[in-house]
Amino acid sequence: MSTHKSSSWCVAMKCNNKVTEKRHFFMFPKEYDRWMQWIRASKRFDLKVMGPEYAHRNYRLCHLHFEEKWYKIGKSRASLHPDAIPTIFFGTNDILVTTAPEEIVNDCQRLSTIVKDCQQEETNRYD
């Protein structure tokens, strides 16, 4: 996963980083479960209605929301490890908050199960 030149800001709440501030921006993942992990970690639940494809094309998080072990900065661009999950955010009182990846994975697995159950119920309803 690499940076994309079209994004001009980070969508994390309370993050005002822009491309002009020499930040590296990473696209939201296309894969549903990983996308949900990013949504949950960033607390940007408003992006859920747009879906992973749309979020991937239009929304970015800057490198400051990832631990350094998850990305590499090259001469012209940065690359993000495919399993990286953003864990560094500012809370409502401007206190640095980190989200434990295990909690994110567990929440996303529960949510994924709920969504699948709802989809199955919807399918059964029209059979």
Automatic annotation (TrEMBL):
Entries under InterPro entries matching the protein: THAP1/10 (IPR026516), THAP_Znf (IPR006612)
GO MF annotation, one: zinc ion binding
UniProt keyword annotation of Secreted present: no
Domain THAP-type, first and last residues per copy: 1-89
Pfam families in alphabetical order: THAP
Assigned keywords, A-Z: DNA-binding, Metal-binding, Zinc, Zinc-finger
UniProt entry tagged with the keyword GTP-binding: no
Domain of life: Eukaryota
UniProt-listed PROSITE patterns: ZF_THAP
Name of this protein: 52 kDa repressor of the inhibitor of the protein kinase-like
Protein source organism: Pogonomyrmex barbatus (red harvester ant)
